[in-house]
User: Fold these one by one.
Assistant:
Number 1:
Amino acid sequence: EAGVAQSPRYKIIEKRQSVAFWCNPISGHATLYWYQQILGQGPKLLIQFQNNGVVDDSQLPKDRFSAERLKGVDSTLKIQPAKLEDSAVYLCASSLVSWGAGVEEQYFGPGTRLTVT
Amino acid sequence: GQQVMQIPQYQHVQEGEDFTTYCNSSTTLSNIQWYKQRPGGHPVFLIQLVKSGEVKKQKRLTFQFGEAKKNSSLHITATQTTDVGTYFCAGESGGSNYKLTFGKGTLLTVNP
């Protein structure tokens, strides 16, 4: 079975520029997550989708970050404008969780390493 | 909000020594998951614990969930160089969104 796909793998931009990341989850996985992982820390959830609806975006800096999951399959995460502190790895994950069944294991993609200069 | 703390932050061992990492939550958890992230890689699911006092084993790895469901541990017996990586616990405290909160992880290095 194919894993979670992400692109690009690496991105370098200057502050105040915009950037977009793409994620294609494992086929059939209803739940999709975007995490930010700063060096030396654990993944921090930015946004969680169930199909194409947002379940949790409480930690998403909505003044500069946006995400969508049209048609409930692949997803894009955008940062506009970027700040130096946005330098991190952005991980996409998906899981099979059926609503009401509880948490299931998450499958992570390889991530996009963003450097903001 | 919920906080998940892990200790130690780093652990260096000689190959063959044992290793333990501890995870503590500020709130009672409905379940806890453990992930391993190799250097330069992405987190990979190891196991999920749900029941109070639960103990699960995977070969040389032993996972425990505390009686109060606020702490957990991962113990590796006789470490090998293939065990190198960062081990994260991630807790879910219930509620309606099944959100996982990750700890900062424990980086394990193994000297051959």
Number 2:
Amino acid sequence: ILNVEQSPQSLHVQEGDSTNFTCSFPSSNFYALHWYRWETAKSPEALFVMTLNGDEKKKGRISATLNTKEGYSYLYIKGSQPEDSATYLCALSYNTDKLIFGTGTRLQVFP
Amino acid sequence: NAGVTQTPKFRILKIGQSMTLQCTQDMNHNYMYWYRQDPGMGLKLIYYSVGAGITDKGEVPNGYNVSRSTTEDFPLRLELAAPSQTSVYFCASSRRGATNEKLFFGSGTQLSVL
């Protein structure tokens, strides 16, 4: 069974701090790496879909990098704000149809 | 735009009862998915469909059935509800699978089996 691991499990930071977390996966049979943002009581929303080794994506203060050869992706948040508080999910597509999710990193940003 | 719509939002079932969770999307997406979310376990794939008339098992299919008679609808059926099926269920869709396309999620169905 494919295993997608995220670390840390949870993170508490002060407003204004920059932070990052990791998604690790088996580097073989890789098709795409997804990042989703999931606020409490809402449904997950897509941040990035990444497919190429060395790919970098950016959306406002959030950016992500991908290393398919070593099997990891980093998500960075610059200058965290309270509204960034959410669970960040990483998911791996190892064939064209299915998406397997990690357990997520829960971020809390304190004012 | 409605996107992905799930009904009901909440439901309580007794052990052994059956029910159908409804999911419909208005984006003409070919791919549809059912996930369940258990605390500390992330999202687990139950079943998915790549188009009308085609379905396949995911990671945790036992105790569930699906059908896909139209592009828009992908209902999830629980035949004999068990306490282990207490969870939050999410339906999702994408245009052409998960390689280059993001998933769009519904708002979820919270199910308790007592």
Number 3:
Amino acid sequence: RKEVEQDPGPFNVPEGATVAFNCTYSNSASQSFFWYRQDCRKEPKLLMSVYSSGNEDGRFTAQLNRASQYISLLIRDSKLSDSATYLCVVNKSFNKFYFGSGTKLNVKP
Amino acid sequence: EAGVAQSPRYKIIEKRQSVAFWCNPISGHATLYWYQQILGQGPKLLIQFQNNGVVDDSQLPKDRFSAERLKGVDSTLKIQPAKLEDSAVYLCASSLVQGVNEKLFFGSGTQLSVL
């Protein structure tokens, strides 16, 4: 079983739509959680950390459910510039980072 | 603050040739990682260094891949001999220390094509 699983998409949405991505992780001892964004032919860049209480950064909201081992990312009012692949990342221990395969988002005019 | 530096940006070689990639992490970052990212997949950890010691190399194909981090700063990753399936982007990343909320910072990667 993979450490981190994501729906690969693609999610094709119009500008202004709200879209949500989900991610599950297999190891209950996982300690910290992140969403990274990766543009085509670029390196992954940190979008936001995910905290148990949930956290928001502008149009982006991340949620963590430790009981269900589930992480989500909600994007409101999608922009064309949000088109990218979103990687779910889990830090298990000793800075061991495990990546999902990514969810591709296409925002269309 | 300077980011993670990697070179070369692109490399094209024939199978059975050798190739080397170089990485210089963010200044002061003790942990350095090499990831392999095949098109359409997430990054896969090849090797993790803490200072100049190896923390995890369980997924490194040691018959052909080697890596070193002399003096605990920059690092090289070598493939010898290369196979067609090694075609991928090789990403170097670094993080400050080992901690619960430490974040990864990536270099721009080396895109390797093996013909």
